[in-house]
Amino acid sequence: MPLFEAMFARRSGLRLRLLRRLLFEPGGEALAVACKGIDIPKSDFATIFMLTRKARSSSSVMNPRELTRVLALYDRVRPEAAHAMIARWQRDSDFLNAVRVLENNGGLEAEANERRAGIERRDTTGS
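RE: above sequence
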């Protein structure tokens, strides 16, 4: 795993200590954003996610819903938002706060679409 971590850190430009936190945080959300941010394809992200979960847990069985959830998140994150997060993490190691900022600022495509749809409905109904 150390070689993989070093290679991922080099490709992403993230400090190794931050990268380790990101790789092994429980939910995998930051890992999804990081992979999207350095243009790792979804199938490769899924493999990385499953391997990091296996490395972090003594259980060899992973809940399929966990994978489904994190893959859905990967799909919802806009590439430009993920690239911005990588840039922020390169400057600021408080990655969990950065993920919250992404979510609050509408970096997730589905949330942004829902907001736009809400605005469009208000505009078309005259409210």
